[in-house]
Amino acid sequence: MSENPLTPLLNTLNTISRSLQNHLSQFLIAPDCTANDLTVSSLTNNPLHLFSAVSLGADTPVAAPPIKEKEAKPLTKEELGRATWTLLHSIAAQYPDKPTRQQRRDAKELMAILSRMYPCKECQDHFKEILKANPVQSGSQGEFSQWLCHVHNVVNRSLGKLSFPCQRVNARWGKLDCKDRSCDLDSTSQLDIKY
Ligand SMILES: Cc1cc2nc3c(=O)[nH]c(=O)nc-3n(C[C@H](O)[C@H](O)[C@H](O)COP(=O)(O)OP(=O)(O)OC[C@H]3O[C@@H](n4cnc5c(N)ncnc54)[C@H](O)[C@@H]3O)c2cc1C
């Protein structure tokens, strides 16, 4: 059987089509698809895609889609403080009754790191002094949450605020509301990490 006279032409067109597919998919910006989704048929079926791809040119960097979120507002020192105390009191509430040596070390290290990395210089310096005068007590959940309540009160008083009654700390910061206690820390299953 003789060869179809159009076969060489079809093969050439096929090669060009594959090359275009690889090339254009890197430069296409369309709101409803990503470069990875693209095929030549999706380009040619939607003339708008083809137009936006071709009009960019090979050297044009792909623009990121516009971010729809509101612009972030800088946090105040007070907001940062409230968020940090929330995290710390939640950690203390969730802390195991019988922590491993590693967990006790982690609690101390967390406070030490906070005193070096907390993003407010005045607060850092103050907290370093507080830690020196009140070494971390992390022998049990009760001990750790009472210690944290106490140091939070030291900060409160220095800012002219009332002290919080520490006998109420577990009522204020109870264990997390996680289904089937799935957030509880298991003090027996955690291996001590050697650094
Ligand atoms: C480590 C650290 C050091 C800081 N140092 C400074 C500083 O030097 N200067 C500065 O201006 N700000 C500092 N801040 C921020 C400051 O402590 C407050 O977070 C901020 O002023 C907002 O206060 P607030 O009254 O809204 O409640 P926060 O003090 O943030 O407390 C949040 C909530 O915790 C509860 N609470 C209050 N006291 C206790 C307690 N003792 N135990 C348990 N729960 C309590 C209350 O329900 C309260 O609403 C520091 C924050 C941190 C985390």
TrEMBL record:
Lineage: Eukaryota, Viridiplantae, Streptophyta, Embryophyta, Tracheophyta
Annotated EC: 1.8.3.2
Name of the protein this chain belongs to: Sulfhydryl oxidase
Source organism per UniProt: Rhynchospora tenuis
GO CC annotation: mitochondrion
Domain ERV/ALR sulfhydryl oxidase: 73-173
Catalyzed reactions: 2 R'C(R)SH + O2 = R'C(R)S-S(R)CR' + H2O2
Superkingdom, taxonomy of origin: Eukaryota
Function as written in the Swiss-Prot or TrEMBL entry: FAD-dependent sulfhydryl oxidase that catalyzes disulfide bond formation. Oxidizes thioredoxin in vitro. Required for the import and folding of small cysteine-containing proteins in the mitochondrial intermembrane space, and can act independently of the oxidoreductase MIA40. Can oxidize the cytochrome c oxidase assembly protein COX19, a typical substrate of MIA40.
